[in-house]
């Protein structure tokens, strides 16, 4: 008499779940959900922490430091941390192709020029205002370049949230230009500062897209090593040739340390976000820097917020919340759909025609 229970081979042929399959499904279902939320949190944290950079950069430059020095100290701190990680893990840092080597070189040189333009924009225009030009321009340029080079189309929710962010940042920028307050530097040449800010946005958008392409075949350690090593060497050479002030009082020195630490932490968080979140959503979520940048500009440089600042922050908040909620809903829908498809595959084995259709 044949046994009443099914053998293991029969279960495998029938496509029915075996022992341990349910645990595996739970793990595969939870992991994408966790990674998606981790990416969103990393992008938001990047924006809030990066908002410390504009006002602190302007504060230190007003005490005699140059953009080359700020670039050097920022990149030197990051490259030391990256080299320590590389020495511990000992990854292969030799490029595997000419294209990869070219992209890594462009990443280092582009960062040096982009950060130099950014610090100069902070010098010739109110820092938070310059940042409000950089941020929306970067969103638009990243969306255009990502569609052209990596065929990554933004979702409707990302476009909706980005429009709200653009509206809010435009209001903040208008308020920063028209608001008259105590000045600490060469704010009369606002046009030059705005031009440098747009050039910074163009370079940053190219670097973000290049990062996304490199991350498909290159480790983060390798990208960071080449990028910040090259930028540090270039900044060091120009610093030796152009800088005259090296000593800082304790307070400006503490502000300089906060500037470097904030930028380094924000860079790491952005790399995590780009790996886990669609690039346009990551750029929109990073607009959280408006909250901290305008707050510190008021506290450090004495430029108080206006009613336009309040409306602008509200618009940015609406945009960020819409993107975060949509990212969560889309990922949950994908997880449920994946589980349903697995159950159907287990219980109703597809026919040959169905298999051909799916292929």
Low-confidence stretches: 1-29, 182-187, 348-359
What is the terminal-to-terminal distance? 41 Å
**Rg over CA atoms:** 25 Å
Order of helices and strands: HHHHHHHHHHHHHH
Overall morphology? globular
| Helix-strand makeup class | mainly alpha
Number of continuous helical runs: 14
Helix content: over 70%
What is the number of domains?
1
Determine the strand fraction and express it as a percent band: under 5%
Number of strands: 0
Averaged pLDDT: 77
Largest sheet: none
Overview of the molecule:
- The chain crosses the membrane at residues 72-89, 133-150, 157-177, 189-209, 221-241, 253-274, 281-301, 307-329.
- Keywords: Membrane, Transmembrane, Transmembrane helix.
- Pfam families: EamA.
- The chain has one domain (34-246, 269-333).
- The chain contains 14 helices and no strands.
- The chain is mainly α and 359 residues long.
- Helices cover 80% and strands 0% of the residues.
- The chain has helices at residues 8-14, 21-50, 52-61, 67-89, 98-124, 127-149, 156-178, 190-215, 220-242, 250-276, 279-285, 289-301, 307-347, 352-358.
Features of the shown structure:
359 residues; mainly alpha; 14 helices; disordered C terminus
Write the layout of secondary structure elements.
Blueprint: H1 8-14, H2 21-50, H3 52-61, H4 67-89, H5 98-124, H6 127-149, H7 156-178, H8 190-215, H9 220-242, H10 250-276, H11 279-285, H12 289-301, H13 307-347, H14 352-358
GO cellular component, one term: membrane
Keywords: Membrane, Transmembrane, Transmembrane helix
Pfam families: EamA
